[in-house]
Amino acid sequence: GEDVEQSLFLSVREGDSSVINCTYTDSSSTYLYWYKQEPGAGLQLLTYIFSNMDMKQDQRLTVLLNKKDKHLSLRIADTQTGDSAIYFCAERNGNQGGKLIFGQGTELSVKP
Amino acid sequence: NAGVTQTPKFRVLKTGQSMTLLCAQDMNHEYMYWYRQDPGMGLRLIHYSVGEGTTAKGEVPDGYNVSRLKKQNFLLGLESAAPSQTSVYFCASRGGAVEQFFGPGTRLTVL
Fold this sequence. Notes:
The complex is a heterodimer of chains A (about 110) and B (about 110). Chain A is built from no helices and eleven strands. In chain A, the strands form two sheets. In chain A, strands 2, 4, 5, 9, 10 and 11 form a six-stranded mixed sheet that branches. In chain A, strands 1-3-8-7-6 form a five-stranded antiparallel sheet, with no helix packed on it. Helix content of chain A is about 0%, strand content about 55%. Chain A starts with a strand and ends with a strand. In chain A, β7 and β8 form a beta hairpin. Helix content of chain B is about 0%, strand content about 50%. Chain B has strands spanning about 5, 10-15, 20-25, 30-35, 45-50, 55, 65, 75-80, 85-95, 100, 105-110. Classes of the chains: A mainly beta (about 110), B mainly beta (about 110). The interface between A and B is medium-sized, with 22 and 26 residues.
C-alpha cells in the first residue's frame, strides 16, 4: 500500500541544524517532496527530489534519499525562528492523476 | 498571477446543509485536486481532475461531488454536510511534471 510516516515534533535551537525524517512504502514513487505549512496558511513547496537521485542541495536545504531503505530526510542548516512551521513529506506515483501521498507532518519549533 | 485561490476562507454549516467550495487557478493547468486536512494527519485526496470536463474519485470521495466545467475552476460540493466533514480543504493544481500549487485553504466547521 501507500503510506508515508514522519515523526510529529522536532525542537532545535536557533543556529543549529534541523533534520526531519520520513519513510515511505511505495517503491514506484517518481518524485518526493518537502512542503512547508505555516499556521493558517496553505502548503508551500520547499524542494523535491527525483527518485533516481541520492541528494539535492538548495541553499540551506539538503535532501537525502535512500531508495533501498525508502527513507527521505530534509536538513535545514542554520535554522532560524522563521523556519518554525509544519513540514510535510510527500511522495508521488502514477496513480490517480499523480496525487500526492502525505505524511502526518513534523512540527518544527525553533527556540532563540 | 493570483495562482490558486479558494472561496470561501471560512464557513460554518449545520448538519444537513449543502455548500459549494470554489477553486480557481489562472495558470492554465490541466490537473486539479481537492484534498482535506485533518488534525495529526497529512492531506488526503478527495477528488481530482485531469482536464476540463473530467473528474475522478480519490481516496476519500464519499459525501462529496465535484465538477470541472471550465478549465480554470474546480468545484467541490457537499450535498448534506456531516460533522465528520469538519476539516480544512485544500485545492491544488499542476501543469508540469513536478509541482502541485496549493491554495490557501477553506476551514469548514459542521455543527
